[in-house]
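Minimal example, chain plus NDP.
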Amino acid sequence: MASVPKTMKAVVIEKNGGTEVLQYKTDVPVPEPKEGQVLVKNDYIGINFIDTYFRSGLYPAPSWPYILGREAEGTVVKAGGGETYGIKEGDKVVWMAEGAYAEYTAAPAAKTVKLPKEMESKIGAAALLQGLTALTLIREAHAVKKGDWVLVHAAAGGTGLWLCQLLRALGANTIGTASTKEKVDLATKAGATHMINYSQDDVKSKVMELTNNNGVAAVFDGVGKSTFDLSLECVARKGSMISFGNASGAVPPVTIARLSPKNARLMRPTLFGYIATREEFEHYVNELFEIIPKEKIDVRIHEVYPLSEAKRAQDDLEGRVSTGKLLLDPTA
Ligand code: NDP
């Protein structure tokens, strides 16, 4: 059996706030895997916007002190017994649950899968949560068809670049938005057929011009508060407004009568609701792992930050500096 230390490095919060509440500690107890869990020694940890919501208090932390982070890639060093879905000690895995900003995580085996042999560790860590989000959004939140016009906000972000590439594979007409020329170029390379630099151009008029005044069949809006009204204005008759995040803040309550003029649908999906069961999780992970080589998906990694620099990483994510995925390395 692999030797497991008693304590580990981890980033812990003891209260809500800005990035100053992120505490890098070197003496956090290594968790003991319970039945149905596997203890994973993490190689690369994925950073996601949701981590900032738990830090700020927008989403309540389930317990205190709390270790942020929802996904990582690593090696199983111990199994806690019970059903582990064929996952055993020594396996390289990716997992999605809680407590990722740490050297070790006791992850539920039901939300852990083996890393494909041909996949690099970093890619596994970078692909899982954002890749699955994009995949489930275009399959279930609004089933996008070839030729559909869709609008993707923050198209050069982690989830945005995934959406652009998966929508290209489907043959959709993707209009992306981004704040800088560098981001516009990246999203175009990823498959956005039309890009709007919203720092320079008016998004609604461009969308209407491109769609012959019809609007788009679906808006995928992870920006939230600052774009909600604009997004709804860009939706076509019988279209879908998919609000899936709060990067600019939470969307205030909406009066449903606002959907009537276009017979529009409004959804507020979360990935976790699409992969709640083992069957659903495996189904989408298998599909994602097949799509990556088949569609030559470029899983763009913005930067690998040392775990001790989680604050700088979250500052970059919230400061709109990043493009693609941010990772943490617990060994650095
Ligand atoms: P991104 O890499 O997309 O980073 C956020 C981007 O949003 C920024 O780079 C910026 O792009 C844009 N943005 C616009 N306004 C703001 C603002 N006020 N503050 C910060 N960013 C802003 O992050 P993720 O891919 O991790 O997440 C994107 C969104 O998707 C988040 O809202 C997240 O919560 C959501 N999400 C939801 C999931 C779900 O299950 N529902 C799962 C995964 C992600 P630009 O400069 O081009 O405007």
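The domain at 129-272 is CATH 3.40.50.720 (Rossmann fold). The pocket of NDP is lined by residues 48-50, 130, 133, 154, 156-160, 178-179, 183, 222-224, 226, 244-248, 269-271, 317-318, 320, 322 (CB under 6 Å).
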